[in-house]
């Protein structure tokens, strides 16, 4: 294979020196322990981190909506599932694992930290 660009089998992809590029993103194929650890890390983040972020967000939504208590609780619980789904999608949509971790952990830490403040109680 020459060093020049050659068209790959997939549309929008091209090969250069044995590495597949897709719209400017370098796609390397690596296998082994690193790949398995990154995948396990994302699964753990999606399940545990997404749950924690969604729970803190649902608590704040329940406290902040100007509804009667029972309706505020239902609203927070329904929005919990939407936030959880978005957190799982966010975890696997990022190319870099560290960006996924920061995108879930920072908002969860902020929302959880605000719950510890004295004025946040009811």
Which labels suit this protein?
62% helix, 3 helices, 4 strands, 122 residues, alpha+beta
Uncertain spans: none
Average pLDDT, rounded to a whole number, is 82
Radius of gyration: 21 Å
What is the molecular shape? elongated
3D architecture notes:
This protein has about 120 residues and is α+β, with helices and mostly antiparallel strands. About 60% of the residues lie in helices and about 10% in strands. The chain is built from three helices and four strands. The protein has a four-stranded antiparallel sheet with strand order 1-2-3-4, with no helix packed on it. Helix 1 runs antiparallel to helix 2, helix 1 runs parallel beside helix 3 and helix 2 runs antiparallel to helix 3. The radius of gyration is 21 Å and the shape is elongated. The termini are far apart. The relative contact order is 0.11. The model has no long low-confidence stretch (mean pLDDT about 80).
Offer a quick outline of the entry.
With 122 residues, the protein is an alpha+beta fold.
């Amino acid at each position: 294979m020459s060093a020049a660009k050659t068209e790959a089998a997939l549309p929008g992809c091209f090969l250069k020196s044995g590495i597949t590029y897709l719209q400017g993103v370098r796609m390397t194929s690596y296998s082994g322990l690193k790949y398995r650890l990154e995948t396990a890390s994302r699964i753990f983040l999606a399940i545990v981190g997404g749950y924690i972020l969604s729970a803190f967000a649902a608590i704040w939504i329940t406290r902040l909506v100007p509804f009667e208590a029972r309706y505020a609780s239902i609203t927070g619980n329904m929005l919990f599932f939407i936030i959880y789904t978005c957190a799982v999608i966010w975890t696997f949509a990022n190319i870099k694992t560290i960006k996924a971790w920061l995108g879930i952990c920072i908002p969860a830490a902020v929302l959880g930290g605000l719950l510890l403040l004295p004025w946040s109680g009811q």
